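Exercise 7. Predict the joint structure of the components listed below.
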Amino acid sequence: MKPIMKTWLAALAAGFVLSVSSVPAGAEDLKDAREIVDRTNVAQYYAGKDGRALIRMKIVDGKGRSQRRQFSVLRRDLKDGGDQNYLVVFDQPADVRNTTFLVKKHAGKDDDRWLYLPGLDLVKRIAASDERTSFVGTHFFYEDISGRHPAEDNHQLLETTDTEYVVKSTPKSTTGVEFAHYTLWINKKTFLPSKIEYVNSQGKVYRRIETAQVQTIQGLPTITRMKVSDLESGGYTLSDISSVQYDLGIPDDIFVETSLRNPPQKWLR
Amino acid sequence: MRPTFCTTGQCRRRSSPWRCLLIAAAAFAALALSSRAFAQPEQGEPTPEESLTEESFEGEAEGPVDAADSAASPEEAAGDTEPLEEASEEDWGEFDEWEEQAEDSPQGTAFQFELGGFVEVLTAPRVVRSSASANEFVANEARFRLNLDATHEVASARFRGDIFADAVQMRIWFDIRDASVFVRPSSWFNMRFGRQVLTWGTGDFLFLNDLFPKDFNSFFIGRADEYLKAPSNSIITTFTIKKVGLDLVWTPIFEPDRFIDGERLSFFNPFAGDIIGDRSPLTPIEPLFPEQRLRNGTVHGRLYGTAGAYELAAYGYVGYWPQPTAFDLADPTDPTSVQGLTYARLAVYGASVRGPMFGGLFNVEAAYYDSFEDRDGTDAAIPNPQLRGLVGYERELFPKFQMGLQYYLEYTVHYDDLIANSLFPQYEPDEFRHLLTLRLTQLLVLDRLELSLFAFFSPNELDTYIRPRIAYKIIDPLAFVFGANLMFGRDDFTFFGQLQENTNVYARLRYSF
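Solution:
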């Protein structure tokens, strides 16, 4: 009995020390690249316990032709930096109106995804293999929308400036990824990336994501405008995020098949 | 031949076309009026809640710089982001205009109203010589679709109506695909009643446990995929408790498939011993319809849930065979006294599993077709029971290149009795009917161009159906589809072989709004 108690106390003490030591992190520069990336992941994709947003995208191809997308997103986190549920309801363009998309994101393993096609009343399961392909015809990838798990890459802190951390991330496995590595410029205070550049195996930057606007919503710094550029074709997509609200108390039981058919209006408006 | 003006359930046969038009017009008018009624008070005076939220948002919209000036720590940095050089002011300015438009539209606690639809032209000439059909086109039509939605937190109404001018059958058709009301009294219970399209099951263009009506004419003539499913007047109730859901569907008046009746597409008729089309006096086939009584309605059920990443479902159905596969006998004791076709009673029990495997998705589904009026298989006028099974696998082989494979089996129970009693043993399908399908889809040009191929092949019947298709979104509202429906078979009487004279190519242009 006694030795167990002792170990337990020791563990508690260790935990206390750890948590104390992490408090002044905001004031002092972080040294561990993985910790920086973990905090970025949480700041960018796990703000609040749940959230709602209206996202509008303008897609411009290399020839200057543009298209629009508009959709609402509901999100609920099961664990910060871990599992999450997303429900996406499309509004524009007209031919995809009322199409819905359900994602059960699992940290460390494949996501479960379903697409609902209203014309056929068909709930279609989607294979998770295409994380790095176009999200609904935009220059964003699925992974840009729902986040790439930090454990999938090795992270190296290249530089710490007055305002930013510069981190180079190299994939642990090259299957399913088109980049050789990518570099993140991370704001030291908000832990939101201001820029991400993707480098191919020839060492050339071919893709860039930039943050154009950050707003503080309910005390949480939030990216509200982003641009992703395909530097090879010259095409780009602008993303505008509005009507953001956090901690609405969205219950977990709306992230089910029946919500694909009949989106929960209570949380969408 | 009595002209059928429209295809909606109420007007299937014998009722006046005007009744149908009136019902539809009333539905349109009611929704349009109700929308105006709901929309006006909102635009005039927003609810206190609404104006509050708007204000608070505006405050935040101006926020980034202010926050950086006044507040400390995280907020301070929030405004630090420098504007992008490449993204010109004009680019982002468009979003501001867009936002204003959105704010103009009524939103809030009352009904939210949406209108949409499309205009579409379709032409599909036959590309093979047909002796059975006089029409050289399987489709030649201009269609107008109206979508109306009135949504509310607890209840919403939906309307999807098509009007199309059909140059093949020289008629104006009116087809209401959806006119339903959805109610969500609580988080664990909801229902939708009215005319609606329903689908479930795991097959890709193969339906085992989905006994909801289908439109096979549309499938083979190049209409959009959604038209493969036909609507029915039904009530669906859904109960959800934790990870388990239960759907119960009741269709008070049995709604059969829109089957191939010879008028548009030709098919094999065992009585004629040949492929028959609109030249034949036997077409269109008008089967004897079950009496419109409540006891003749159909009930569909599904119990479903997830176990980890796997989806499990059990299904049940009590009703009729969805196609007129039974004989209507003048003298019930004499199986040769066939005076027409009708629908036999049917119950179906089944189950399915779907989940990830080897970087893709696999699915297994089985269904037992309990043709309970002829369980021992000796009645020549009624189809035998069948066991149907499906195994499927799909995955993305390369970015945006999707492959799907399916194997489907149809096993006819008491086959010896079927052959011994059948009026046409030479035309009966094999005891085991095997079917393989392949789907290949490639998305290009930021998903605007889709190249796809879907092929069915039966190794025992030696027939095939191939659906190549190119779909291109020219600019956002305008989409062009070019494709073909290619049917071949060694024999005239097999599932796809009988359709070979309908082989066609098609072009479809759609403008969505």
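Discussion. The first helix of chain B runs from residue 17 to 44.
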